[in-house]
Amino acid sequence: MGPPSSNKYLGVSRNVFVLGFVSFFNDVASEMVYPLVPIFLTSVLGAPASVVGLIEGVAEATAGLLKVVSGWLSDRFGRRKPFVLAGYAFSAFSKLLLGLAGTWLTVLAARFFDRLGKGARTSPRDAMIAESSAASNRGRSFGFHRALDTLGAVVGPLLALWALDNLDDNYRLIFFLAFVPALVGVILLLFVVKDQHPKPLSTATFVFKWAALSKPFKQFLLISLIFALGNSSDAFLILRSQDLGLTVTTVVLVYVLFNLSYAVFSIPAGVVSDRIGPRPVLVIGFLLFSFVYLSFGLAEQTIFLFFLFPIYGIFMALTEGVGKAYISSMVPSGQFGTVFGIYQTAVGVCIFAASFLAGLLWTYVDASAPFIFGAGTALIATVLLMTVAKQ
């Protein structure tokens, strides 16, 4: 079965429409608990900061390593939905486990299950979005999905702030409440989303052959890795904001502005990429990133942050979904899961390295150094994207 012949739900297929809301509800749940987990660990369970780092490291490594495997398996068996469903179910279960946590080891298990879910679902879900869309409409489809996903990241932190104020800082109750939207997403996925049944891969063993990948994909992957080397964790944007004088509450609010901007511009960015091609849109996005990072490095007054965070959201809108649409044009549909997994895992490893390097630059050079470095790598990637990566 190929992609739907018509798009009746805000310009996207039913699968993409529902997957957008599945991600919305999951992200509401995740963003309700994610900002609170470090505070819960240190303030309620009495864990040291080193344990917080250990837990997050294990969690992110789990997600990164699984994206290739889950993507390839979904290609191998010609089924996406079981992996996507299992992934969202694991993440929903993690909210209950957090609510029951009495020691940091239980929190570690909860974060492990949450990231296990992310690793299991991400590549097969992106493949499902691509297969559920006509080739000429994939920018809009990925943009729609990112918009709904990111809107959840706007609602989630606001709900967390409300819950903290109205539930007497009852972290466990908030974790249990977060299970509700996560469960809604799982139910939607279970009963409404349908597999498109791609042709399974013929090989029965996992074999990665670099030579078998298309030249445009290899070029774009290498350019993306150069870009990712300067794209450190968003935690450094938050640290820089506090360094410049923003309060914790104000930092949360500008973070919401970032996600709101990301959500608003994701669909328009996807539509434009369908009309003029993804490369020009990605070039503009890379340039915006370079501008934002350079500005974070040079800024001396907090007022600029209220403009830089929304612009950073526009960068995300111009690159996240559009990049996936670009990749889907470079490979056959039966390899979508594997290629998305390779891309996301490789970029994730580079971002981990970028964050480690950013920490060194911040500590031993200056707080502005990570951002100036990131602006430079983004400019290099932009030039390469303009001159090298051509289909």
Describe this entry's structure for a reader.
This protein is mainly α and 391 residues long. Helix 3 runs parallel beside helix 5, helix 6 packs across helix 12 (305-328) and helix 8 runs parallel beside helix 13. It has helices at residues 14-33, 37-44, 49-77, 81-100, 104-131, 138-166, 171-192, 215-228, 235-243, 248-276, 278-298, 305-328, 336-364, 369-387. The mean pLDDT is 87. The protein contains 14 helices and no strands. The radius of gyration is 20 Å and the shape is globular.
- Secondary structure: helix percent: over 70%
Structural class: mainly alpha
Tally of contiguous helical segments = 14
The gross shape turns out to be: globular
What is the H-and-E element order? Answer: HHHHHHHHHHHHHH
Number of strands: 0
Q: How much strand content do the residues show? A: under 5%
Low-confidence parts, pLDDT < 50 over ≥5 residues?
none
Q: What is the C-alpha radius of gyration, as a whole number of Å?
A: 20 Å
How far apart lie the N and C ends? Answer: 27 Å
